Amino acid sequence: xxxxxxxxxxxxxxxxxxxxxxxxxxxxxxxxxxxxxxxxxxxxxxxxxxxxxxxxxxxxxxxxxxxxxxxxxxxxxxxxxxxxxxxxxxxxxxxxxxxxxxxxxxxxxxxxxxxxxxxxxxxxxxxxxxxxxxxxxxxxxxxxxxx
Amino acid sequence: xxxxxxxxxxxxxxxxxxxxxxxxxxxxxxxxxxxxxxxxxxxxxxxxxxxxxxxxxxxxxxxxxxxxxxxxxxxxxxxxxxxxxxxxxxxxxxxxxxxxxxxxxxxxxxxxxxxxxxxxxxxxxxxxxxxxxxxxxxxxxxx
Lengths: 147, 143
Prior knowledge:
With 147 residues, chain A is mostly helical. In chain A, 69% of the residues lie in helices and 0% in strands.
């Protein structure tokens, strides 16, 4: 079972309450599709992803980015039961969407970079460590129902 | 792998960072130690607390090596030859540490913190590709 210290809980809550999901969600997803272009394979029905400019102005991608952040919010609100909270989502990503779980880490990396760019020096090494622990738990939970 | 524009972008970024080489390098190292405590085992003989002399010195060395490598990416194998030998035979750092999840990732985070919005997705992609190539070349002499 994942154990969170008071400090870690406080850091995660503080990070997410400082984020505008409507801004950072689209940015993180766009970054992922640009930096790791093979991830575009899961977005065939989303319209024009031809280049960075097209991706950044694609409304379907933006909407999806926001959806993802709200999904992460569920983990933030249920830190002690992330695995259970994500059971359904995990099954969805495995059986319906067929997403290789390695991709969750890639999106996680892009979100980390977006948050780092936003918080600057405020994203200290300790803060990053805690955030990465949270993302590792999230990624693990999302991969749990794959078999 | 890297387009002409990407190579120019990479050189431009690293030249701009030369005055803060020690800060960026030591920041990246510190982030790696905080996120991946296993990496500290390679530095047990040094003082790697924040702003320590050893950390700043090592951070600066790493950024200087990366900046040198950026100047002519097609010649990475030549530029890095002495470092390849050092890492393979003397330091023997497990090369998975160089990679995406560990040092390179933390270097990217340090760049994002430092550059804010200037660390665009396009710059990020170019830098990630360059650091991957750098890490791969560094590990070439291991076996």
